[in-house]
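Q: Convert this sequence to structure tokens.
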Amino acid sequence: MRRVPVLLSAAVMLALSNLAQAAPAAPSTPMRAPVADHHQYVYSPAVAAFLSSSAPLQPVTAQDLIAQLDAAGIERAAVLSVAWVYGRPAQLPDDEYDRVRAENDWAARQAGEYPGRLVALCSVDPLKDYALAELARCAASPEFGRGIKLHPAAGVRLDDPAQMARVQRVFRSANARGMAIVLQLRGTSAEGAHLLIDQLLPFAPDVPVQVAYAEPPPAGARAGEGATPLAALAVLAEAAARQDPRMRQVWLDASSFARPGLSPADARRVVRRLRQVGMERVLYGSETAVGLEVPPRDAWAAFRSLPLTDAEAARVANNVMPYLR
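A:
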């Protein structure tokens, strides 16, 4: 059985110098900031301590996030809980589900401090036995937005029928409750993207599905479209271009397709695929300035370095998912 590692995150971030050859002429007037950032996090003191085994991680509060959004001129943001991290197989605390609930609730309280600007989405590993219970709990709570982030802590093998069935049941439950799905895929292949379209999307036909990829090719790698995540992006883009009905509710969270080190050729490939998806379904997201990430202001400047037209960039800047409206 071949392993198809999949997890669905996000923000299209590029080093300006790496894209200089690929970028179009600078806009004649400054481009306004995005209305919304669809990929942000807060970290409680508890989860920061949990994640600090290899390197120190500081908590990130809603106040910290709002300061970054203000500096970038961004009005609203989705606060994606990081509760799923407690399912990491190398750690697995005995009180795992208690910690998951606590982190989700902490994120909701943080977003509640800025109700006009932040919306909290709880998160859960869809492979866990408690996944359906946590989805139902979050769906019933007015503290959370109408969405959930699904992030398998150890990855998922979509070619494994048992694992696929677990993710399908969570998709079905989210669809029944009218919950938008933010699915984070990590380093998936073209095969994984086909499985997503063929065997997952049919279980959530009535709700928006925000697909995010993580772990782009390393800087300087000659990736092309045969490497992740461009291979998966190509599959989704081609399905959208041929108007596959299963792609009708899919939005692309572009948070990882253009990291620093992306070559001008790959930048052009990314833009070509985004155009196939349709700029009306491409979402801006940046991720919190934690670790190696960059703040929203710099991430937006990097996104603007892609060889997009001003009109295309403006369309992405104005796209807002229903759970953030």
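The first strand starts at residue 5 and ends at 6.
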